[in-house]
Design brief:
- The chain is built from ten helices and ten strands.
- The longest helix is centred in the C-terminal third of the chain and has 14 residues.
- The chain has one domain: Rossmann fold, CATH 3.40.50.300.
- Helix 3 packs parallel to helix 6, helix 4 crosses helix 6 and helix 6 packs parallel to helix 7.
- By secondary structure, the protein is of the alpha/beta class.
- Strand 9 and strand 10 form a beta hairpin.
């Protein structure tokens, strides 16, 4: 992967400043500062329990659904702090979509999996065209075009995950979050999802959490390595160790913890 220029402010899709996340009185993640450039894929890597998914869920306020969770610091999207009181979290999630670890198609037809979300979000255009375009962008159209009336649950695991990607992009978000989208998939399905991500970054910014370092090195432009350290209370607090172009993280990291992790010495 070639060296990437440092983005200027107009190229930033999302930014965190001194982001802290608490569960009750326990600090779960501390002092995360990073910028996510537009139309790039950013991968979060690190050992289990280091806060990767917790940080990801801050970006579309999914953590709001956890009553004990509290976020401090700033997450800026389109020039606005998404945790400001006037921000509508539901509208935010339309602009920052999410694909989860386990494929979760609606118990509806393949067609309605795409159309339903668009419809409730006020889409008034050509629905057939939207469904086809979304499925094409998610690289699953050719596999499902002759069975759009069949249940989305009838598809294979890899097809279901690409259907969920199509559903996420059908409401035309700016950013797509992916929380270990390939962890339950076989290698061939994983390859298809990865190819889909590479195509999607032409139109969207993608942030992916992955335990698979090879996946991060294959698909991402930039990589953030998170780690965790023990607290006095016996728990763990996650923190961002290093964030750079993916080539740097995997070939010439600046931090010893990063070097140890990407070389397989721990994790």
């Amino acid at each position: 992967m070639s060296d990437l220029p440092t983005p200027n402010s107009s190229d930033i899709a999302l930014q965190t400043e001194n982001l802290h996340v608490y569960y009750g009185s326990n600090l779960a993640v501390r002092s995360v500062n990073l910028e996510v450039p537009r139309n790039q894929i950013v991968a979060f890597i690190g050992p289990s329990g280091c806060g990767k998914s917790t940080v990801l869920r801050c970006f579309n306020r999914m953590n709001d659904l956890i009553s004990s969770c509290r976020v401090e610091g700033r997450v800026t999207f389109q020039g606005e702090d998404i945790y400001a009181s006037q921000v509508d979290a539901v509208e935010l999630r339309r602009k920052i979509g999410m694909v989860f670890q386990k494929a979760n198609p609606f118990p509806k037809s393949i067609y309605e999996n795409i159309a339903w979300g668009a419809r409730i979000n006020g889409f008034r255009g050509d629905m057939d065209e939207l469904v086809e375009n979304s499925l094409r962008k998610a690289a699953v159209w050719d596999e499902v075009k002759d069975k759009l009336k069949e249940s989305g649950l009838s598809l294979s695991g890899g097809q279901q995950q690409r259907l969920c990607i199509a559903r996420a992009i059908s409401i035309q978000p700016d950013i797509v979050l992916m929380d270990e989208p390939c962890s339950a998939l076989d290698p061939i399905s994983t390859m298809k999802v990865e190819e889909t991500m590479k195509q999607l970054k032409q139109d969207y910014t993608i942030i992916i959490v992955t335990h698979n370092m090879q996946q991060a090195s294959r698909v991402s432009d930039r990589t953030a390595f998170f780690n965790a350290e023990a607290t006095d209370k016996g728990g763990k607090v996650g923190y961002l160790v290093e964030y750079d172009n993916t080539e740097v993280i995997f070939n010439n990291p600046q931090d010893q913890y990063t070097r140890d992790y990407v070389s397989g010495r721990f994790g």
